[in-house]
Amino acid sequence: MLHSRSEWRLPPTGPDTCFVGISFHHFRTTRRAIVRSSLAQAFSSDGEGFATRGEGVPVEPEQGRNAHLSEQQAFELAQNVLAEYELRTGGAPLRVVLHKTSYFDPAEQAGFAAALKDTPIVSMVTLVPSLFRLLRYGAYPPKVGTVCTVNSDRSFLFTSGFMPELGTYPGPHVPQPFEVRCLGVESAVAAAQDVLNLTRMNWNTADIRGKWPVSLSFARRVGGILDEYGDDDLTETSFRYFV
């Protein structure tokens, strides 16, 4: 069965939004040195996706698994996303939501804030798979979309779990929630709603159990392809080019 693109858009509520997933991947340069390259996978409110590659991030021994952009790199990456968004939609977004799986350090916060200073609403959202577990009465785990707030300052979102539409939980393991941390004027609960909506926007699969938002899951997939692409400039940025 074929679906039109309009069926894969977010609900038409709120301001025009650009969702941006930021990830890092490894590739070998022409000097055969391994670096981490930043990648932003962005989506407009109507589901149009595109990728923008940032500068290489040298791997430092003390860095561990969490790579971070410099202030200038964060600034340039956000500027590139805005330019590509305007090219595709004809206007600037009124809201930008940035997704990462590691915290936004002070340099990244400063760089993104400077680049997005003319955007009315900016949220920097960190999604961290958590060891937190929630039990409820009955035979099944919490429903998909459950948000649990602890002590008014920590929020956990279940993007997998019991699905009333199926009458069961279709997963093999105990559902693992994300801890949702949000920097900006919006609440973690509002950020969680965006994340949940974006888990259902993968039009390239028939899987009903999307765990990750497409902003991050597609960034990882595209990053894997770019591992083979090398350090040449991208000639095509549309997500369709990579699937």
TrEMBL record:
Specify the superkingdom. Bacteria
**A molecular function GO annotation:** nucleic acid binding
Which Gene3D superfamilies does UniProt cross-reference here? Answer: Ribonuclease H-like superfamily/Ribonuclease H
Q: Known SUPFAM superfamilies for this protein?
A: Ribonuclease H-like
Q: What is this protein called?
A: Piwi domain-containing protein
- Gene source species: Sphingomonas leidyi
